[in-house]
Amino acid sequence: MLEPIPDLVFYPDPLHRYMYKGNWLARSVTQVLSHDMSAATRARIDATKDGPDGWLIRGNTVHACLENFLLHGDPGDVGDFSDWVTPLLAHRLFKDFEVLAAEYSVCSPSKSLGGQFDCLLRTGKGSTVLCDLKTVTSKLAAASRKPADAQLGAYAAMLIDHHPTITIDACLTVVAGPGITIVKTSDPSACIAAWLDAWDAYNILQPDF
């Protein structure tokens, strides 16, 4: 298991912020990647967030189950989301692996940026894979979900900065839907390039002080 990055602390809800060496980091990966989201898209996301069938409780529950499974061998309380958790944990990715990190916080002090990836695994074949878990509402949504290349690229870049001896062989977007799990594989170099493009698009709009 990787040791946590020294002096980096993540404060979850309601703050959802990162502190590094006693200073708040100004932004998260999610904030950077969603900076140009349209008002209509944001409204649709907000409208489906809350409630017993909302994406917030679904995402939190499935993520917690995966973390518990990786660290303790048991998913714990699946709540109303066994249709998501059961096929997720039955996927071949989680049949023969070593956990290198789970829910691991990373940062880029020069960008005043923090983020947290879902897991870093070494597969039975010896490959090191960086994973981001997404939950969706249907099998159709799982099939059409785009890989989270820029997000994975952000995590990969920051992880390599702090752990330069790590070689990431693949970036995986793990899409969990009801009755289905699809793993989409991306090249780490392409993911980092996508992240740098996204960072440039975000950074150019920031005011000069």
Provide an overview of this structure.
This protein has 209 residues and is α+β, with helices and mostly antiparallel strands. It has a single domain (8-203), classed as Lambda Exonuclease, Chain A (Alpha-Beta Complex), CATH 3.90.320. The chain contains 7 helices and 9 strands. The protein has helices at 29-33, 39-47, 55-72, 82-90, 139-144, 149-162, 188-203, and strands at 8-11, 17-20, 23-24, 27-28, 97-108, 113-123, 128-135, 170-177, 180-186. Helix 6 (149-162) packs across helix 7. The longest helix has 18 residues, at 55-72.
Work out the strand percent.
25-35%
Total separate domains: 1
User: Whole-Å distance between the termini?
Assistant: 40 Å
Helix content: 25-40%
Class inferred from helices and paired strands? alpha+beta
How many strands? 9
CATH architecture grouping:
Alpha-Beta Complex
CATH class equals Alpha Beta
Sum up the overall morphology in one term: globular
Determine the CATH topology.
Lambda Exonuclease, Chain A
Radius of gyration: 17 Å
- DSSP summary: helix tally: 7
Write the layout of secondary structure elements.
Layout: E1 8-11, E2 17-20, E3 23-24, E4 27-28, H1 29-33, H2 39-47, H3 55-72, H4 82-90, E5 97-108, E6 113-123, E7 128-135, H5 139-144, H6 149-162, E8 170-177, E9 180-186, H7 188-203
Parallel strand pairs: 4-6, 7-8
Antiparallel strand pairs: 1-2, 2-3, 5-6, 6-7, 8-9
Helix pairs in contact: 3-4, 6-7
